């Protein structure tokens, strides 16, 4: 029962890594270093998406939205994002909803 949310979290972490990697080596290293220093990536089995987003926004400003959108696209490719969402939903809201669904499954 709990396994599903762990799987979602692992897939989310992979999607975040893929989105950050797509920005290029130096930027990927900088963001990863920053997140590690803030404790965002301290637990490889769990990620607080709100904490990640707030730190990302602090680091890259408006670019945080692009990274979250890229993360969402990676989740869609993994098939984890199968729900219908309001067109106005942000990538963060969509990811939060998917994580909450995973916790209940």
Name the features.
single chain; 105 residues; mainly alpha; Non-ribosomal Peptide Synthetase Peptidyl Carrier Protein, Chain A; 0% strand
Main beta-sheet strand count, sense and barrel state = none
Number of helices: 5
CATH architecture: Orthogonal Bundle
Number of strands: 0
Distance between the termini: 6 Å
Order of helices and strands: HHHHH
Could you say what the CATH topology is called? Non-ribosomal Peptide Synthetase Peptidyl Carrier Protein, Chain A
What is the averaged pLDDT score? Answer: 84
Give the low-pLDDT segments.
Answer: none
What would you call the structural class? mainly alpha
State the domain count: 1
Condensed summary:
By secondary structure, the protein is mainly alpha-helical. 71% of the residues lie in helices and 0% in strands.
SSE topology sketch:
Layout: H1 3-21, H2 25-38, H3 49-60, H4 63-78, H5 91-104
Describe the 3D structure:
This protein is an all-alpha fold and 105 residues long. It has a single domain, classed as Non-ribosomal Peptide Synthetase Peptidyl Carrier Protein, Chain A (Orthogonal Bundle). The chain is built from five helices and no strands. The relative contact order is 0.18.
């Amino acid at each position: 029962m709990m396994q599903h949310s762990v799987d979602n979290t692992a897939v989310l972490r992979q999607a975040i890594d893929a989105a950050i990697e797509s920005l290029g080596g130096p930027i990927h290293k900088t963001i990863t270093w920053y997140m590690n220093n803030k404790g965002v990536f301290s637990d490889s089995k769990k990620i607080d998406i709100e904490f990640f987003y707030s730190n990302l926004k602090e680091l890259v400003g408006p670019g945080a939205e692009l990274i979250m959108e890229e993360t969402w696209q990676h989740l869609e490719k993994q098939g984890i994002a199968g729900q219908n969402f309001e067109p106005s939903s942000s990538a963060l809201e969509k990811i939060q909803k998917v994580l909450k669904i995973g916790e209940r499954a």
